[in-house]
Amino acid sequence: MSNSNNNHINGGIPPLEVAIVGGGIVGVMTALGLHRRGIKATIYERASTYTEVSAGFAFTEAARRWMEQLNPDLLEILGRISQKTDANSSNSYWDGYNPRTREDAEDESKALLFRTPNNKLLFWGCVRSQFLKEMGALLPEGAAVFGKQLLSYEDDEKNNKVVLHFEDGTTAKADVLLGCDGVHSSTRKNMLGPDHPASRPGYTHNVTYRTMVPIDVGVSAMGEKTAQGGCMHCGPNACLLTYPVQSGTLLNIAIFAYDAEEFPDPKRMTAPANRSEIEKIFKDWCPHAANVWKLYPEKMIKWGIYDMTQNPPPTYASGRVCIVGDAAHASTPFLGIGACTGVEDALVVCKVLESVQARRETLNGETAADALREALQTYSRARLERGQWVPRNSGQIGRMYQWRDGRDPEGLQQKLAKAAQAIVSYDVLAPLAA
Ligand SMILES: Cc1cc2nc3c(=O)[nH]c(=O)nc-3n(C[C@H](O)[C@H](O)[C@H](O)COP(=O)(O)OP(=O)(O)OC[C@H]3O[C@@H](n4cnc5c(N)ncnc54)[C@H](O)[C@@H]3O)c2cc1C
């Protein structure tokens, strides 16, 4: 159990009650941030338990700073389970296509496009499922309810509560509803209306194949340098990312491939796949990429990548409801900061709700509802620009990794340097002070 101030009652006034739809990374983090502030948060998750893939992902130093403010316990977990990059290491970007031999593919003078120093982003990489499970274990008893799929909600002006309707016919009430329900968010759809263009995400025509292998297996297949930090192999219509996780014992591998076809089922994020698809994608590439299919199981799952670039939501809040994390600004993963951006959202939404909670004693039912609506509008205004910048820039970088507009390592290097600067220098709380 955490040292969070779970049972805090503000001078006899009951704490705000927040319903969080979605027990993914961002929903659980937000709940921990709220409990820390004496706000009662209940997660409603459609799955029967916390569900995350056993794949790696990473958080920047900037995101860790905001995470610590959200709830220091989060940083403790991440620090314990992460593989950390240090200021002297770098991410390397390789020509994954042209080298014909293994020696050439590992020869920096022939295949290395450039390196970017890690002293800016300083990623810490961990295994998603482990991080989510450890975070979930910090929540107070009863703070996560599983098997609850949100269908709709009512935010009645006259009603002092938002009412959530679940697929199993049950309902729940709360002062505020936070939709942390991911890229295909039901909360967003209900908030904007099913005919609004931003009610559905756009398919980016990219699929990803993910796996993790013991580090020695990865190194013998992909070369010594893959164990030393993030490596991106670039080439036509695909790219291949590798980096060590779990204290350097595992190599995380993610392939991102352009696919002109529509995703098999647009309502689902995954589809069954064979490793022969990977063999086909990298058929003419350098030996590392051409053989990477051997590291994957025969039968697997591929993920369709959707984002909000084409039709970004015009607002993240309406009434006493708002959207947080991928529900608001799902992005392609090419900048590697989708969840980091969710951390930023979580901190801002916690801060604005904390300020209503602090004034609760002086607010009656009606003014409290108004204060909540205004707080969520403040959240939306603070996050909207950032939430559009991330998916837009990530999509542009993905095109460059995949040589979709031609091979341009200099342009890519400049674009990455500019993006890294924008990521590290961004002050999440500044819009709240304005
Ligand atoms: C290949 C890949 C690599 C990535 N790497 C990184 C990285 O290195 N660093 C980084 O910062 N980001 C990365 N990202 C992005 C990151 O994964 C996402 O931004 C993050 O997981 C979003 O979390 P979330 O909680 O908002 O949404 P999700 O993780 O999608 O969680 C949503 C939750 O809501 C639940 N749900 C959905 N609908 C309902 C409903 N109607 N009712 C109840 N529950 C519902 C779902 O079951 C799920 O548990 C990567 C993404 C991909 C695809």
Top keywords for this entry?
434 residues; alpha+beta; FAD/NAD(P)-binding domain; D-Amino Acid Oxidase, Chain A, domain 2; eight-stranded mixed beta sheet; six-stranded mixed beta sheet; 15 helices; 25% strand; disordered N terminus; binds flavin-adenine dinucleotide
Task: Describe the fold and architecture.
The chain is 37% helix and 25% strand. The protein has helices at residues 25-36, 61-70, 72-81, 102-106, 108-111, 128-136, 186-192, 215-222, 275-281, 287-290, 326-329, 338-359, 365-401, 409-425, 430-433, and strands spanning 17-21, 40-45, 56-59, 83-84, 90-95, 112-117, 124-127, 144-146, 150-154, 162-166, 171-174, 176-179, 202-214, 231-235, 238-245, 250-258, 270-274, 299-307, 317-318, 321-323. The longest helix has 37 residues, at 365-401. The chain is α+β, with helices and mostly antiparallel strands. It has 2 domains: 1-81 and 128-201 and 310-401, FAD/NAD(P)-binding domain (3-Layer(bba) Sandwich), CATH 3.50.50.60; 86-121 and 202-307, D-Amino Acid Oxidase, Chain A, domain 2. The protein is built from 15 helices and 20 strands. Flavin-adenine dinucleotide binds next to helix 1, strand 2, strand 3, strand 13 and strand 18. Residues 21-27, 44-47, 51, 57-59, 148-150, 180-182, 186, 208, 210, 254, 303, 305, 325-326, 333, 336-340, 342 line the site of flavin-adenine dinucleotide.
